[in-house]
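In the laboratory, one determines a bound structure by crystallizing the protein with its ligand and collecting diffraction data. In a computational setting the workflow is compressed into a single prediction: the sequence and the ligand go in, and a structural description comes out. We illustrate the idea with NDP.
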Amino acid sequence: MARVALVTGGTRGIGAAICKHLKDDGYSVVANYAGNVEKAEAFSQETGIPAYRFDVSDYDACQEQVAAIEEAVGPVDVLVNNAGITRDGTLMKMSHERWQDVLDTNLGSCFNMAHAVFPGMKDRKFGRIINIGSINGQAGQYGQANYAAAKSGIHGFTKALAQEGARYGITVNAVAPGYVDTDMVAAVPEDVLAKIVARIPVGRLGKAGDIARGVAFLAADTADFITGSTMSINGGQHMY
Ligand code: NDP
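The predicted complex, in structure-token form:
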């Protein structure tokens, strides 16, 4: 039986590349998305990967939808917490709503989804949880106090959960992308982006496939000695 992989925010950008890569590797893949039905339908049609619409910041929806996915496809072996949003602004211009939305969607979602799959993984003595962090969670970023806090939180969450999962064969790792050419980065003004690219030693933006390769590596059965780690995939922009 193929292992089942669930990728949140899997219908476009980095998530879509992760879904396609895992499918090519032989996984039975399920994607989630928030509300962009047109993109999701086009994605499912192109790939044959089912897409479930629910809000990963909603705890109850996550529990219900993961149960429905497991009923339809089988127990989730690999969870990729990829869904994320930005709501940028300097602190003085950042509303409480923008702060909370970003924390709930990027970080709260990791708890919500892990809570839904962890008991089953524990019973089956196998699991892979891969959380998508960010270079901006490692280094901070002007105008992104909410996003940097959420992504930095993901890195702490990963290390704590890795310690809880290890004895049950569950590994928990993070992947921290640098700037990747997706809709999210298309929102960055051109002049700002040019300055960012000038600081990337390999001289280009990342591609979604660059991140997908890292995720697939950590998802493999053979990656069982790697847990609590953060894989930085950023063209050398931030090293530590
Ligand atoms: P995109 O904006 O291209 O895609 C985001 C995906 O997440 C979409 O499928 C979207 O669904 C889904 N999503 C958003 N909010 C929710 C929600 N509340 N519930 C369920 N799904 C949701 O993002 P990227 O591909 O660029 O980014 C993917 C991840 O990588 C994010 O966590 C991001 O923070 C991180 N990252 C990205 C970087 C980059 O340079 N692009 C750099 C570092 C990290 P829908 O289509 O329905 O809106």
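The pocket of NDP is lined by residues 8-9, 11-15, 32-36, 39, 55-57, 82-85, 105, 132, 134, 177, 179-180, 182-185 (CB under 6 Å). Keep in mind that any predicted model is a hypothesis to be tested, not a measurement.
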